[in-house]
Amino acid sequence: MAAPEVPIWALVHLTHAALQRTADRAGVDLLHIKGPATRSSLRAGRHDSSDTDVLVRPAHLDRFVAALAADGWTLFTGFDEGSPFGHAANYTHTSWTYADVHRNLPGPRRNADEVFEVLWRDREPAEIGHCPCAVPSLAGQVAVQTLHSARSHGTEHADAWDLSSPAVQAETRALARELQAETALAAAIGELDAHRDAPDHALWEYWSSSDNDRLDEWAARYRSADGFAERWRVLRQAMHVNRTHLRIRLGHEPGPIEVFREQCARIAHGAVSVLRRAKGRRS
Predict the structure, then answer these.
(1) Which helix (H) or strand (E) covers residue 206, if one does?
(2) Which of 148, 147, 146, 116 is nearest to 134 (CA)?
(3) What is the full per-residue pLDDT of the chain (283 aa) written as tens digits?
(4) Buried-most residue among 5, 63, 94, 191 (CB within 10 A)?
(5) Residue 132 belongs to what H/E stretch?
(6) Among 66, 65, 105, 109, which residue's Cα sits nearest to residue 86?
(7) What's the CA gap between 76 and 81, in Å, rounded?
(8) How far from 78 is each of 83, 88, 176, 232, CA to CA, in Å?
(9) 57, 28 in Cβ contact below 8 A?
(10) Domain 1-136 class, CATH top level
């Protein structure tokens, strides 16, 4: 008789516990975020995550990655391939759900070490999968969930914010100011127009809107980049084919010809977007 399949919600809880065990053994500071690390009172109805999210102290990242490999985890998508923010790497394991290992959070403009330290300072204990874990404070949980909805192109409502009391909302605003994440928070709660002069306004206008294309994304990322080095990195990424995404789409490791075709398609798509934009402006 086959063993009963473990429900996904239970597997997610157990994955959080497994990651905490790995962190404890390696002496790594770990904050569990989203999913079961968020209070149920901040959710509008039942919501079962299908993967596990943790935020690692940046100074401990290399140690944690090495410990994951020792415990049988395999890198699926790296930090520079997983998202435009380069904030998380995705790992797989034969026994657990996917794990998103975050080295920072999209939204705050303070550096990753300072962001982690602020969230770690106000952390609170939680038991996930019968394992003691650290999670952000209530305001921290609201901030994490709300900043996540800010980059959903309008498809995810800021439930955690709406379900919070005025006092918790005030605490969340104060936390956003400390993290320099006011623009991203405003994008999620419908107050972005009040931040038109912010250096990252264009970025969050793109991520919170549903009618922009990739050209808008790259333009917004370039305008919001801090300094020449960051802008040069954005330009290099714009021209670079994401081999991991291509591999996932094709279902196999792409060959040189497939990469070349994707590069040509990328250039053609960019040219069409530019021409469409120019035509619209003339009209």
Answers:
(1) helix 201-207
(2) 116
(3) 455 678 899 999 999 999 999 999 999 999 999 999 999 999 877 666 789 999 999 999 999 999 999 999 999 988 877 667 888 999 999 999 999 999 999 999 999 999 999 999 999 999 999 999 999 999 999 999 999 999 888 788 899 999 999 999 999 999 999 999 999 999 999 999 999 999 999 889 988 886 656 555 655 555 555 666 666 555 556 556 555 555 555 666 766 676 556 666 655 555 555 455 545 555 5
(4) 63
(5) strand 131-135
(6) 105
(7) 10
(8) 9, 7, 27, 20
(9) yes
(10) alpha beta
Dist CA 226 CA 110 (whole Å): 11
C-beta separation of 31 from 54 below 8 A:
yes
Residue 25, token pair as written in the block: 């053994």
Domain ranges for the chain: 1-136, 138-212
